[in-house]
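debug: dumping io for the single-chain case to check the tokenizer round-trip. Nothing else runs in this session.
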Amino acid sequence: MLRLNITLILILVACALSTVSANHRARKLFTELEAAQKSMRDLDVEWGQLQLEQSTLAAHVRIEKAAREKLGMKPPTPGQIIAVEPASGQ
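debug: decoded output
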């Protein structure tokens, strides 16, 4: 009878330790999941910013290309650039 009680107590302790271990692992995995989801949200925001930047840069390139091809425009040479200084009273 004593041997049976000791065996049952050992089984009970093993089950309790297994439950604690499983709960700890579940919490750890949940924390990792939350961190990964935060990282995903941050990357989504960065992706949106990069898409906006790309569309902005593409618009400038498109406008410059149209100005060169359709209007025959070209950038001024350094000798054609005149710097205008603001009036001293302002």
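debug: round-trip ok. The radius of gyration is 35 Å.
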